[in-house]
Design a protein that fits this description.
Blueprint lengths: L8 H16 L3 H19 L2 H26 L1 H7 L3 E14 L4 E13 L2 E13 L1 H7 L7 E9 L9 E4 L5 E4 L3 H16 L5 H12 L7 H9 L10 H17 L5 H17 L4 H14 L7 H19 L7 H24 L5 H25 L1 E2 L1 H28 L3 H27 L5 E2 L4 H22 L2 H16 L14 E3 L8 E6 L2 E5 L8 H8 L3 E6 L5 H4 L2 H7 L1 E7 L10 H5 L3 E4 L5 E4 L2 E7 L5 H4 L6 H5 L3 E6 L8 E5 L5 H7 L10 E3 L10 H7 L3 E4 L12 H9 L3 E4 H4 L2 E6 L2 E6 L4
Parallel strand pairs: 3-5, 11-12, 12-13, 13-14, 18-19, 19-20, 20-21
Antiparallel strand pairs: 1-2, 1-4, 2-3, 4-5, 4-6, 7-8, 9-10, 9-22, 10-11, 15-16, 16-17, 17-18, 22-23
Helix pairs in contact: 1-2, 1-3, 1-12, 2-3, 6-15, 6-16, 7-15, 7-16, 8-16, 9-10, 9-11, 9-14, 9-15, 10-11, 11-12, 11-13, 12-13, 13-14, 13-17, 14-15, 14-17, 15-16, 19-21
Length: 768
């Protein structure tokens, strides 16, 4: 091996950085051009070829990117958007993607022409629109690739988004041009795949389309969360690493049946073309195809890093030229890093594994492992955690991804010809997903599945250095079966035990609001290993890990404030991690299907009665409000205000051995303004030290109620980047105005209330 060919790497990095500056920074074009001319001057004086390549890359970015920015900011559509004018427009639909869980949809498309003040302008500019649930209904039947006419208002867009305008107030669309024939065929194949999988178990039927074409529309929330926790989400995204895994399997099978040289190359290209077509040819798919082929160059060659690194550099430059805004995409960064890891490490690691494993299995383990390690710093930057389970999960799931994806692809193609045969192939593909689902389910439930990490420059640099050091150690471990077994045992042991984080949880903690994403879960310390728990957060969001980290083994009383999934979805994790004796629910919700697992375990389920009290160790719980639910309310939409206002409201008093004495907590579920106002009449009963802010800090609050609590600390359970707008700025302002210390899980992770120096304090889990 001659070593990696790094000659194009500086130019690729320059193209990436230069295009990001041109498309996002003020005076970006001047900056990129100026640095490019400086690099050209250095190249001329020093005769440095690498500097010359950097100069060419930067100047080309200034020309290409600057031209594209000018088109977006100085065309007729941009001028119409600047004045927020209403227009009649023709739009070709590129994608319709669900956003969040409220029925909202993001529309991406191409503005073909628009009419304003009687003048029709022709263009081919990218646009986007955010459709609410009611608007989305009228677009649901529009096939991708179709051209529609609508009336809408053109609104200004940020040039960094890469669109000429945002459409607001879009009318119901009318199709004026059907999709191209190839798009119709592709949609038929995708629909055939979904139909062929309909007889398989639900999780398998959902995962196969996700693996094959990135269609995650059928994946339940629980499965998505399990994949996120275990670092397997890239398998369901249109990613270069995922395509590389599939191509590695296809080419390995081709070599096994005697194919060589040009035949394997043609097969890889054909597979990639089919992949791009089936995934609608979106920019992210083109990116994945380029990265996948670059990653494939690192496998099955005598000198993989030389050709692979060169191919990756060319792919980066070409993609930045084709779509300048890709340079600003997190997905692009993840793809580049994943393929870089595969190129630099996967072949060497696979060679070590091949000393005692079959070649196909060695590649299936090495490729996802390299991708996971290379992308970990960026993943941690996004999530604030290190997924220890991701390393094990990717290695364990990797061997099943290639064959399952190929089987799913065959199912999709055969479905057009014979749905019956496709159903049989679909069952085979479904069987292949079973181990992947089992790995995600098991690894995500482990107490140490992920570890909090400081998202600071120093923290991320240290993590990147640790990943590079680990990459040097891995091949020495993989070459020895005994070392692999020992390393696996150590990692599994680390995942079984809850993460050890200095200072967390604080000694003598009294109350903890767990970080369970967009949901609520509060734990009250009632004695060693004993707690009262209020709500359990959404499915697979870490309820079990939070309890394990706090050392809670026994829950005499669990309160489910109201039957919404973001408050009850984590019940299975709580039941699996601690002994629950009694669950208090709203009257009328006792037969909620979410409680079936608790019934099976012999847990007592009782309706909460206003005025009832429960004493658990050093804590006393009093029910202040609990409105019985009627069948009609239970059948309403998940965001029903009636169900929110019915939430169980409880006061919990906790005795301490400090000078502070007894402290009090008010838990409020999701009560909104009417229920909050009615509680004010209870006077001192709602006067507490700590307030669990209602409804994740939504804008539906009554300031008189907040003031009546007199709380000094306000805790908010809320998910980072949620699409509900929680917590609302007005709510935060009101809490601050009332003198409360505000702590929120989206920024601080889990939050503990403890006593320090005879005063109540908050201790947060996230230090970044």
């Amino acid at each position: 091996m001659t070593g990696p060919d790094r000659r194009l790497v500086p130019a690729a990095v320059a193209a990436w950085a230069g295009m990001a500056v041109v498309t996002g920074a003020r005076f970006g074009l001047a900056i990129a051009a100026g640095v490019g001319f400086m690099a050209a001057l250095v190249a001329w004086k020093r005769r440095w070829a690498s500097a010359a390549l950097v100069a060419v890359a930067l100047i080309s970015c200034a020309i290409i990117g600057g031209g594209r920015v000018l088109i977006l900011t100085d065309g007729p559509a941009a001028h119409a958007a600047a004045s927020s004018r209403a227009v009649s427009a023709e739009v070709t639909v590129t994608t319709l993607a669900p956003v969040g869980d409220r029925g909202s949809v993001r529309l991406d498309g191409t503005l073909r022409q628009f009419t304003l003040d009687g003048t029709t302008w022709s263009t081919r500019a990218p646009i986007l629109a955010w459709l609410n649930a009611s608007q989305a209904e009228s677009w649901a039947a529009i096939p991708l690739g179709a051209t529609v006419t609508i009336t809408a208002r053109l609104a200004p867009a940020d040039v960094a988004d890469g669109v000429v305008a945002e459409l607001t107030g879009a009318s119901a669309p009318v199709v004026v041009e059907s999709p191209a024939a190839w798009q119709v065929v592709v949609e038929r194949i995708r629909a055939g795949l979904r139909e062929a999988m309909s007889l398989a178990p639900a999780d398998q039927a959902a995962l196969v389309p996700a693996l094959v074409v990135g269609d995650t529309s059928l994946m339940p929330t629980t499965l998505k969360e399990q994949f996120r926790t275990t670092g397997l989400t890239h398998l369901t995204a249109v990613s270069g690493a995922n395509l590389t895994i599939m191509l590695a399997f296809v080419t390995a099978m081709a070599r096994a049946v005697g194919a060589r040289g040009r035949g394997i190359t043609l097969l890889a290209v054909a597979t990639t073309v089919g992949f791009v077509a089936l995934c609608h040819g979106e920019p992210s798919v083109v990116r994945a195809a380029a990265m996948g082929l670059a990653g494939l160059a690192a496998l099955g060659r005598a000198d993989p890093t030389a050709s692979g690194l060169r191919a990756l550099s060319v792919a980066i430059i070409a993609l930045c030229w084709i779509d300048p805004w890709m340079s600003r995409s997190i997905g692009f960064a993840l793809s580049v890093l994943a393929c870089g890891g595969i190129i630099l490490w996967a072949r060497r690691w696979a060679d070590r594994l091949e000393r005692w494993l079959p070649g196909w299995l060695a590649e299936a383990i090495a490729v996802p492992l390299a991708a996971q390690l290379a992308t970990q710093p960026v993943v941690t930057w996004l999530s604030g955690a290190i997924s220890l389970s991701g390393l094990v999960a990717n290695a364990a799931a990797g061997p099943w991804v290639g064959p399952t994806t190929v089987a799913g692809l065959a199912t999709a193609l055969v479905a057009v010809i014979s749905p019956t045969v496709a159903s049989l192939l679909g069952r085979v593909a479904g069987w292949g997903t079973a181990p992947i689902i089992a790995v995600a389910e098991y690894c995500s439930a482990l107490a140490g599945a992920s570890y909090e990490w400081p998202v600071t420059p120093i923290g991320l640099v240290l993590l990147a250095l640790a990943c590079l050091l680990t990459a040097q150690v891995v091949p020495h471990v993989l070459a020895r079966p005994i070392a692999v077994v020992l390393a696996t045992i150590l990692m599994v042991a680390g995942m079984v035990s809850p993460p050890i984080q200095p200072g967390w949880p604080p000694r003598d903690w009294l109350i903890v609001t767990c970080d369970v994403g967009q949901g609520d879960m509060t734990v009250v310390n009632a004695g060693p290993g004993v707690a009262i728990v209020i709500d359990t957060g959404p499915p697979s969001s870490g309820a079990g890990r939070c309890l394990a980290g706090l050392g809670v083994a026994e829950i005499p009383v669990l309160v489910l404030t109201h039957p919404h999934a973001d408050h009850t979805g984590g019940l299975d994790e709580v039941l699996a991690g601690a002994a629950v004796s009694t669950i208090l629910v709203l009257e009328g919700a006792e037969q909620d299907s979410a409680l079936q697992q608790a019934r099976d375990r012999g847990v007592t389920i009782r309706p909460a009665r206003v005025g009832a009290s429960v004493v658990v160790g050093s804590a006393r719980l009093d029910i202040l409000a609990a409105t019985p639910l009627h069948t009609s309310a239970l059948s309403e939409d998940g965001e029903s205000g009636a169900v929110n206002d019915a939430s169980i409201v409880a006061r919990i008093d906790i005795a301490t051995t400090t000078a502070v004495g007894q402290i009090s907590l008010l838990t409020t579920g999701d009560i909104e303004e009417p229920a909050q106002r009615s509680l004010v009449a209870q006077g001192d009963a709602i006067a507490v030290d700590v307030l669990k802010t209602p409804h994740h800090g939504s804008s539906g609050f009554d300031e008189g109620f907040l003031a009546a609590t007199g709380a000094s600390i306000a805790l908010i359970g809320v998910g980072e980047g949620n699409d509900y707008g929680h917590p609302a700025a007005a709510t935060l302002a009101a809490l601050t105005r009332l003198g409360m210390t505000v702590a929120r899980t989206d920024r601080h992770g889990s939050i503990a209330v403890a006593v320090d120096d005879d005063a109540l304090v908050t201790v947060v889990q996230k230090v970044g």
